[in-house]
Amino acid sequence: MSMPASEIAPLLDVKDLKARVGGQIVLNGISLTVRTGEVHAIMGPNGSGKSTLAYVLAGRPGYEVLGGSAQFEGHDLLSLAPEARARAGLFLGFQYPVEIPGVNNAYLLKAALNAARRERGQPELDAFEFLSLVRAKTQLMHIDDSFLGRGVNEGFSGGEKKRNEILQMLVLEPKLSLLDETDSGLDIDALKVVAHGVNSLRSPERSIVLVTHYQRLLDHVVPDFVHVLARGRIVRSGDRSLALELERRGYDWVSGQAAA
Amino acid sequence: MNEATTAMRAGVLDRVLRDYRGIAADLPGDAGVRAARARAAARLAELGWPSARDEQWRYTNLRAFERLNTFHPPAAEERDAAAALAALQAQIELPPALPGFERLIFVDGRRTAGTHPMLVAPAEHAAASPVWPAEQRLGLLADMFASDAARLKIRGEAAIEILFVSSARAANAANYPRLELRLEPNSQLRLIERHLGAAAPASLIACNVNIELARNAVLTHYRLQQCSRDSIFADTLSARLEEQARYSVRSIAVGGGSARTSASIELAGRGASAAWQAIAVGRGEQVHDIALKVEHAAPDTRTEELFRGIADERARVAFSGHIRIGASAPGSQARQSLRGLIEGHAEIDLRPRLEILTDDVRASHGATTGRLDEDLLFYLLARGIDRLTARALLKWAFLGDVLREIELPALRAEAERLAAGQLPDVPPLGALS
Fold first, then answer.
1. Residue A259: its pLDDT value, please?
2. Which CATH superfamily is domain A5-97+176-259 in?
3. Each residue of A172-199: pLDDT tens digit?
4. Which residues of B touch A168 (CB under 8 A)?
5. Fewest CB atoms within 10 A around its CB: which of A19, A22, A140, B206?
6. How far from the centroid of its chain's Cα atoms is residue B252's Cα?
7. CA distance readout (Å), B263 to A181, B42, B293, B313
């Protein structure tokens, strides 16, 4: 017996969220509901608040919530520390992943995975189990095994950094992945690899929110819903055809609507 | 400077000279050694006690010397080496021996255990004590007071560990460890020099190290300073490198209440190269002050300097790196990377200085000081890593540039253990995986 979608508690329920950063109000009343198994795309012009939404949900310091709420599986997300949000199953794929020389990739992956497993009441993986799990994912992401011994993102190209973000996501298997412009700066081959990685995680148990400027990624990861953000508000929601219409008509079309 | 400070400086110098005169006749050595001691005393009298007004000594905790009761070393004990070693082991746990290394133990400046075929008597030792320049004048203390030395002349290959230990007998007294080392042409030495001590209030450890590397000699010199937090550690090192010689220092300083290292390296022969890779970690009220001068005096010489300092709580960590590339050193290269990490109410002072007197030089330097990077921290938190572990990982990453250079796994683990002991709330690196 299957329940109608409306009766399943949403994985993420954002209501009238307002936030500011650096004294400037960037989110101006966002409401967004993401149910388990759904893929959403959030599109919008530069400065529309897309990345801010991702950061606020992940708990980045310096982003001040002024009002509204965000529930994750029915719990108040905004009261949790960033590490607790991650362990609860929220993953932020960074637009600009930092380089951390001296902390190697394998080390970070293992520490992160074991933190998540402890949270889920699962036993920690030993070195052998961990490596066999990671190797399968590195192959999927076309990442050479030697990278595991290198510093986190140290000396990586832009594309390698993005693939590394997706690798981390695949290893951690989060309930909700917020991917902040993971497609930016990728050539078409890298974009396909990244899209393939994202699609491999797509399942009725997981949800994905793609934050993107261009509709190009959505050719490869087809969303169930598309939202258009302008001036800190969702000004339009629809299905995939909205992204195509946006591509055709440009962001001026929705920006004009936001002003109205 | 006010009159009280002047009086204080004169006071310390007067006490050094008075203590020296009181004991000079009882110190070991022939007429030549006595004359050398007297010359050192005269030189210190001429230079005066260092002043914090002098740029070279600005960050040293000179006041700590005012609290010393005496500059006398503890009286020699009449007992055999085995008994002395047993007495020491009752006071302090000695670090585990490292495979492949011969161990020599000096207690309160005198050799107590171990021997090595390359240990030589003073007469056979070619290295003369250098005439210390003003910025290394604390080296004169050991020249005046030391009663023994580790004198080594290396031929072929060797691996030696020297423990300089302060015993409880040295409480309220002073220790003068000395190391005189000559590497013959084409020889290779891996040397571990460790300074450690039983907990003892307000003692002075004034250490001298003189090194000569002959043509094509290679020295890898690990230095671990883990003296008692009550002690003053005053360390003076001089190294001279002939043609194609290579000298690498990997230094971990965590001990001493007040520590000062005054080091100088002269690249005297064509193609000589020096690498100084150092960590200093201070907490509480500790002061670590390191001053290193490298003189490029021959063509095609190279320097690589790497310093990573962490100061926590109210500690002060200072590193001054002066690299001088003389007119006689075309084709030389120098790289300097100094970084400081501040926690709590601590202070870090990094002073890079490149002085270049010739064209045809490749040189780079960088010095940065700051707190833990919030962006890096957030990245780790966003992966579910708890805050304490994330901060610890970043601190280990910071020290990693130097720790990675310690090739001996057992010694690297020791160095990590020492560093972890200095970092509040930071678990050992192995415990984080």
1. 46
2. P-loop containing nucleotide triphosphate hydrolases (3.40.50.300)
3. 999 999 999 999 889 999 999 999 999 9
4. 383
5. A22
6. 9
7. 51, 22, 6, 27
Residue A45 · residue A252 · CB < 8 Å: no
Spatial distance between the Cα atoms of B109 and A98, rounded to a whole number of angstroms: 49
Residue B114 pLDDT > 70, yes or no? yes
- Give the pLDDT score at B130: 73
- What are the residue boundaries of the structural domains of chain A, listed by start? 5-97+176-259
When pLDDT is cut at 50, 70 and 90, the band that residue B47 belongs to is: very high
Nearest CA in chain A to B393: A103
Taking CA–CA distances from B389, the nearest residue in chain A reads A111
Closest by CA to B72, choosing from B151, B138, B17, is B17
- Whether residue B31 has pLDDT greater than 60: yes
Q: pTM for the whole thing? A: 0.88
pLDDT digits (tens, 9 = 90+) for A16-74: 999 999 889 999 999 999 999 999 999 998 889 999 999 999 999 999 999 999 999 99
Count Cβ atoms within 10 A of the Cβ of residue B313 and give its class: 0-12 exposed, 13-18 middle, 19 or more buried.
Answer: middle
CB-nearest to B383 from A61, A101, A112 is A112
Does B372 reach chain A within 8 Å, measured CB to CB?
Answer: no
Contacts of B374 in chain A (CB under 8 A): 61
Mean per-residue pLDDT of chain B: 91
- Closest partner residue to B375 (CB to CB) among A92, A98, A152 is A98
Check CB contact of A36 with chain B, cutoff 8 Å. no
Residues in chain B with CB shorter than 8 Å from the CB of A115 are 383-386
Residues B112 and B106 sit within 8 Å (Cβ to Cβ) = yes
Tallying the residues shown for chain A, one arrives at 260
* pLDDT, greater one: A22 or B331: B331
Query: Are B394 and A94 an interchain contact pair (Cβ–Cβ within 8 Å)?
Result: no
Nearest to B228 by CA among B250, B205, B209: B205
- Interface check for B2 against chain A (CB to CB < 8 A): the answer is no
